[in-house]
Each structure stands twice: as C-alpha cells, then as structure tokens.
Amino acid sequence: MPTVYDVPQDMLIKRLSEYLRRLPQVAPPMWSYMVKTGSHAERPPAEREWWYMRAASILRKLYLRGPLGLADLEPMYGGRKRVGYSLAHHRDGGGSNIRNILKQLEAAGLVVKDGKKGRVLTNKGRSLLDKLSGEVFKELVKSNPELAKYG
Hints:
Layout: H1 9-21, H2 50-65, H3 70-76, E1 79-81, E2 89-91, H4 95-107, E3 111-113, E4 119-121, H5 123-143
Antiparallel strand pairs: 1-2, 3-4
C-alpha cells in the first residue's frame, strides 16, 4: 500500500483539500478572504480556497514530521521580506491562520494535542492520508503503468 512518501505532494494536497472542503468542521472564517498569510506577504492569497490547501498542507507536514507545534509551523509557512536597500530577512507565517486551522482539524478528529510536543495525527487522520495517497497512486499507475511494480 503506497503512503504519503510515495506520491507527489501537489496531487495529494489537492485531493486532501477536496476532502476537507466537505467537512463541516473545516471552514474558512469570514476574515480569511482579506487577510495576508504573514508579514512577508504583500497581498492576501489570490486563490479563494487557500484555507483548505493550507489545512491539507499542515496535515501532510504532521504526517511526515511528527509532533509539531505552532512555533514549528510558523517558519515553514514564512518567507522573505524586503527591507529597503538591505538584504531580505525571513519572516514567519501568520500564526492566527495556522492556529485556527489546527483547532478546526482537532474538531474534525484528525489531529490531537500531544502534551508539550505539539500536535500529532490521530489514527483517523493517518488512515485518511494513507487512503488518499493510495487513490493518487492508482491514478498515477493508470497514466504510467510502469509504476505498478512500486505499489
């Protein structure tokens, strides 16, 4: 059975965001359409459904990197900020976006707090990611039959 490690991340995140869109617990707040994703960004995201893509990306990161807290996730979603003529500096991503997504994923039963270490995937979340990566792998095998030997 293929896992998250075996499929391309863009296809998995897209499939996972479509699944999260159907969950009633995961919904973007009203302010998410006009807020930037961090102090490094100049404008809000152009894609209207960015909330679900970010939630799917966070789930994938929790699957791959184990228990992660807000302080671990903020630098991952940060970027470069120009400071006049000086060199660019790294700025962390917006914590409110990530925090609200984590709370919604907890309400959906996909993530749970792990003491002081941060948040981890539940068995339900891990099996969901494995199931969706299996579906993505089947699509890849249809387009390229040589990949069947790896599944």
